What we know:
Helix content: 40-55%
Distance between the termini: 41 Å
Strand order of the largest sheet: 3-2-1-4-5-6-7
Number of strands: 7
Largest sheet: 7 strands, parallel
Strand content: 15-25%
CATH superfamily: NAD(P)-binding Rossmann-like Domain
Amino acid sequence: xxxxxxxxxxxxxxxxxxxxxxxxxxxxxxxxxxxxxxxxxxxxxxxxxxxxxxxxxxxxxxxxxxxxxxxxxxxxxxxxxxxxxxxxxxxxxxxxxxxxxxxxxxxxxxxxxxxxxxxxxxxxxxxxxxxxxxxxxxxxxxxxxxxxxxxxxxxxxxxxxxxxxxxxxxxxxxxxxxxxxxxxxxxxxxxxxxxxxxxxxxxxxxxxxxxxxxxxxxxxxxxxxxxxxxxxxxxxxxxx
Length: 240
């Protein structure tokens, strides 16, 4: 029986890369989107998956998303909490309360909501993998990224706590902290910015969505059954 993966925020960027990778490895893929319907539907058509609209920052919509995926595929073996948002770099005094609330609503509440909703079916089967996406700024903090760093650090804390909570039920919870990845989220960076970043990265290149997707596949596989509560920095050595 084919396994099923639900990837939130998977219409583009890291999520889309993960969707393609899991489909290529024989998974049923549930593509989640909120705004990018055309891209999500095109991706689902390309990989033979299904697209589901939901604002994961809403607990009600997150539960409806999980229910819809279960109705379509029968189970969820892997949940990847990838949906996220960011701000342009700004000093703390330039971050508004509205911007802060949005960051935490999507990055933290979205992760909490989907994990909470998906756990019912995983606990029943005593099996499941939850993979959360943080950031290297959640690990080390980023100057002029205080709000974003705080939201992504919260994802790490949530990962470690939930891993302990559900481990007795055979469920693993891990976290990936990507470095600088070439996605729409970093589209505002100029060539000079990328060149400067490359000089700081020991491997000498900007990461690609498939670099993250490969680690997701590893954590979702049986090879990683004894790994839980961990944070894997996939950053070309930037945080060494």
